[in-house]
């Protein structure tokens, strides 16, 4: 399979604080890669590094093209959509306005049919169309954030803890939809999750990050079935 995203010897940090110390990671085209690790390991920073929100050294390659240290907007135009932790929706705007912002970089006329496609995935968003995003439930906000990212028609979707703070049934719903999206749109996904079980179930490939370094990597299924890895790193 061709690599969609490749990180090679990636270093990143904030000012004097170095957070990532040489990460190698791959997302296959149409594949799902999970990035796991304890609080503060550098998972969010890795996603930020991919979409140009922190300064990096090393290589970030999207479908064979270097994107490291480009502007965030330029990276978005090349097909990278980011659903940050805290959802990244515009809380004071309505669902409709958030949808329109999601599609803002698109110049084609198919946006309206993509709105319909999003309603197919997330019927509740149609019912909440004129509602302010800040007044939606946590699950609806996560759905809106994912829909908004998908309206970019990304090649790569970066998801930062999509299950955070949500009830188990909603989480199941959202992951069910992510599976459909992956099949229907062939989008590659890099997902950060505290819920290792959930992420390993969803992903084909996984990496375990510890204080800015990858300590375990491999097929998600193998990691899920490895009792020693589970006990040492995942705490279950
Ligand atoms: N804007 C920032 N300025 C300075 N340090 C930061 C900033 N953001 C994160 N850090 C530091 O970088 C380190 C890694 O943080 P990061 O958010 O990437 O970890 P994480 O693995 O995503 O953790 P969590 O699961 O808690 O979100 C932490 O020590 C954190 O304090």
Automatic annotation (TrEMBL):
<dbReference type="InterPro" id="IPR052156">
    <property type="entry name" value="BCAA_Transport_ATP-bd_LivF"/>
</dbReference>
<keyword id="KW-0029">Amino-acid transport</keyword>
<keyword id="KW-0547">Nucleotide-binding</keyword>
<dbReference type="Pfam" id="PF00005">
    <property type="entry name" value="ABC_tran"/>
</dbReference>
<protein>
    <submittedName>
        <fullName>ABC transporter ATP-binding protein</fullName>
    </submittedName>
</protein>
<dbReference type="InterPro" id="IPR017871">
    <property type="entry name" value="ABC_transporter-like_CS"/>
</dbReference>
<dbReference type="InterPro" id="IPR003593">
    <property type="entry name" value="AAA+_ATPase"/>
</dbReference>
<feature type="domain" description="ABC transporter">
    <location>
        <begin position="5"/>
        <end position="236"/>
    </location>
</feature>
<keyword id="KW-0067">ATP-binding</keyword>
<comment type="similarity">
    <text>Belongs to the ABC transporter superfamily.</text>
</comment>
<keyword id="KW-0813">Transport</keyword>
<dbReference type="GO" id="GO:0005524">
    <property type="term" value="F:ATP binding"/>
</dbReference>
<dbReference type="InterPro" id="IPR027417">
    <property type="entry name" value="P-loop_NTPase"/>
</dbReference>
<dbReference type="InterPro" id="IPR003439">
    <property type="entry name" value="ABC_transporter-like_ATP-bd"/>
</dbReference>
């Amino acid at each position: 399979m061709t690599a969609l995203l490749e990180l090679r010897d990636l270093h990143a940090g904030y000012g004097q604080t170095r957070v990532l110390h040489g990460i190698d990671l791959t997302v296959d085209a149409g594949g799902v890669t999970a990035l796991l690790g304890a609080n503060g390991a550098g998972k969010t920073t890795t996603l930020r590094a991919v979409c140009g929100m922190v300064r990096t050294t090393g290589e970030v390659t999207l479908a064979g093209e270097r994107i490291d240290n480009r502007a965030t907007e330029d990276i978005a135009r090349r097909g990278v959509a980011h659903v940050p932790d805290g959802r990244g929706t515009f809380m004071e705007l309505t669902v409709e306005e958030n949808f329109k912002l999601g599609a803002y970089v698109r110049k084609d006329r198919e946006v309206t049919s993509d709105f319909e496609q999003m309603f197919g995935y997330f019927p509740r968003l149609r019912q909440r169309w004129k509602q302010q995003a800040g007044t939606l439930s946590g699950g609806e906000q996560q759905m809106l954030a994912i829909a908004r990212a998908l309206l970019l028609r990304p090649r790569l979707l970066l998801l930062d803890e999509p299950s955070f703070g949500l009830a188990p049934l909603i989480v199941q719903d959202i992951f069910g939809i992510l599976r459909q999206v992956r099949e229907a749109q062939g989008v590659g996904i890099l997902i950060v999750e505290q819920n290792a079980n959930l992420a390993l179930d969803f992903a084909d490939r996984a990496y375990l990050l510890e204080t800015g370094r990858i300590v375990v990597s491999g097929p998600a299924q193998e990691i899920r079935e490895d009792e020693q890895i589970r006990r040492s790193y995942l705490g279950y």
